[in-house]
User: What shape does this take?
Amino acid sequence: MRRSAIAAAVASCLLLGACMTTRVEESKSAATGLRDGEAIVIIETSYHFGNDTEDSFVDCVSKAVQKGRNRLRVYPDEAFVDDLFPWFEPRFMPKGPDALPELLAKPGVAEKIRANGIRYIVWLNGDTERTNSGGSLSCAVGPGGGGCFGFAWWENDSTYEASIWDIEDSESAGEVSAAVRGTSMIPAVIVPLPLIARTQSAACKGLARELQAFIAGEDAS
Amino acid sequence: MAADRSSLLQQVAVLGAALLATACSSSVVVPADFPQPVIEPVPLTIGLRYLPEFTGYEYAEELPNDFDWRFDIGAANRALFDTVFGQMFERSVALDATAPVPPDVDLVVVPTVDALEFSLPRQSGDDQYAVWIRYRLEVQKPDGDLVTEWPIAAYGQADARRFGRAASMTAATRRAMRDAAAQIAAGLADKAQIESILAAGGADAAAAGIAKVNRQAEPAAEKAPANDEASDEEDNDAS
Assistant: This one.
């Protein structure tokens, strides 16, 4: 019975694509919601604090939260950082919501944020790492043709967290996280058949959906 | 006929060599546009003395078994300091290397680049192109007397997975230059300190105030150059 279940799982993976497990969580500490004309800005935590979130992931989440029923208005991150130069440069960006009152008291800062209707800052943290790999695959070409034989696989782990700061109340509204683990494989009998687990893309979609529900003040489930 | 063929072969060889050299080198030219800092201007007139080695700064490095890298940040250097100082002080005046200081100038700043270093993803093993630039600001009284020297260690990195090779290094260099500008702007944003000293005694006192801000500036922790190859270049000067 157990053997057939495993065989069925492997067969499903092969038929449907690579295997992934996704975990999305949220922790809310304040009521949320966006009024007409209000926007959020999504930026990555500084590399000075040891964070290496991919630029492509920030772009992906920014685009994804602007789609669907709970779509959010997003102010472009690069324009935000330029507007408030130098206070959101990697060296000087605030480390926690406790730093917001001091930042907003600096000449011109609160006015610029208010003028652009920005209500929440969403800080992204995390990255995608290859955690394991194995197998072997070899290809050869001869006068009569060519082909590949073997089996290669690798496992990717995409773990991201979004911290949401409410600028109006100068406090943290909570956190949303997405963790996706996936195994990609390439079985090859003459023709290689790549089955790729797009963990980063899955984490982006999961995090964006949860963020929309979180900020709109709805239950994501 | 034979001479024509020889000439044609020579031209082909020269063209091939040129193409090969281009294919094996990467050029970093930083766009000369930077944001204005959001700070209240200090009520002083500042003179910015631009030396030719600063506005024409170039750095080249040949890496074994890799591309040759060439950095051209001279125009961006000037744009960066024009933008930042233009906003930080009530008035700023650009001065050539030998131009006399106008009588209404309170202080003169002479920026220089001490060194530029970089590291590649294969050296650091973390998908990032990284650039370090060491600037030095010499703050002088209008008569040329040195008030203080302000060394600025700036750092920038860019994701190798998003851009191409040269574009990533350009983005990292631009971020390092912005980091330098941010340190200058944030260091001088403590206007209250400078103003109180100004009220007490004019430009001499303001210069002393800047020196004080300089001493108080506490640089944030940053990544060290990723490997020996990068740190070997510490003493590079403008080529």
Notes: Residues 70 and 212 of chain A are 6 Å apart (CA to CA). Residues 2-216 of chain A form a domain with the Double Stranded RNA Binding Domain fold (CATH 3.30.160).
